[in-house]
Amino acid sequence: MSVLPGCVVRQAQDGPALAAQRSTPLLADEVLVKKGQRRLYLMRDGKPFRTYRVALGFAPEGHKEREGDGRTPEGRYVLDWRNASSRFTKAINISYPNVEDRARAAMRGDRPGGAIMIHGEPRCHVDPALADLVRYEDWTEGCVAVSNLAMDEIWRYTLDGTPIEIRP
After folding, report:
1. Other beta carbons less than 10 A from residue 158's beta carbon
2. Where would a tag sit more exposed on the chain, N or C end, judged by fewer CB atoms within 10 A?
3. What is the DSSP letter of 73?
4. Does 16 fall in a domain?
5. Which residue of the set 7, 124, 125, 143 is catalytic?
6. How many domains, the chain?
7. Active-site residue, selected from the candidate residues 63, 119, 124, 125
8. 56 and 140 Cβ atoms separated by less than 8 Å
9. Of 50, 11, 53, which Cα lies nearest the Cα of 35?
């Protein structure tokens, strides 16, 4: 199995006020990821209005415990900034680690890791076989990866400040 190195990106500036835009139709008021189903749901008023197939960290079982473990975190976070020119096409940062994640890692003497994103496919791949790998296999270092078409929609239907819950 191939692993592509980290998903570190730079911060972009937030646009208009989040509260004013929440009333716009087709904006998600929550993102839900169900790791066991390999699905990401854009939610509005408790109901999904878009569903996407995802790839996770290369060791997807369980909650992320430390930097480099290949796990995708579980818990409640926020989409807090985005990068339109990421090496993974587009990327939206997930606010991992939170206070509890940092405390758990510190108790074990570990670093919790970070730079966990929802992102598209790598810009560098051109081989169709690799395209299938990044769409249907768990290959990230802990991020939630989607197709580029899905990423375009997720980008459009979410705002910075949108809550995200990642479940087992």
Report:
1. 20
2. N
3. P
4. no
5. 143
6. 1
7. 119
8. yes
9. 53
- Give the largest CA-CA distance in the chain: 45
Q: What is the DSSP letter of 35?
A: G
Strands 117-119 and 144-145 turn out to be parallel
> Tell me, what CATH number does 132's domain have?
2.40.440.10
47 beta partners = 44
Structure tokens at 74: 């579980």
3-state secondary structure (DSSP) of residue 19 = helix
Which residues form the domain of 58? 27-167
DSSP state of 70: -
pTM: 0.80
Identify whether 125 is a catalytic site residue. no
Q: Which helix (H) or strand (E) holds 152?
A: helix 148-157
The per-residue DSSP string of 101-140 comes to HHHHHHHHT-------EEE---TT---HHHHHHHHHS--B
In a domain, 119, yes or no: yes
In the residue annotation, 7 being an active-site residue is answered as no
Kindly report, residue by residue over 40-96, the tens digit of the pLDDT: 999 999 999 999 999 999 887 878 887 888 899 999 999 999 999 888 889 999 999
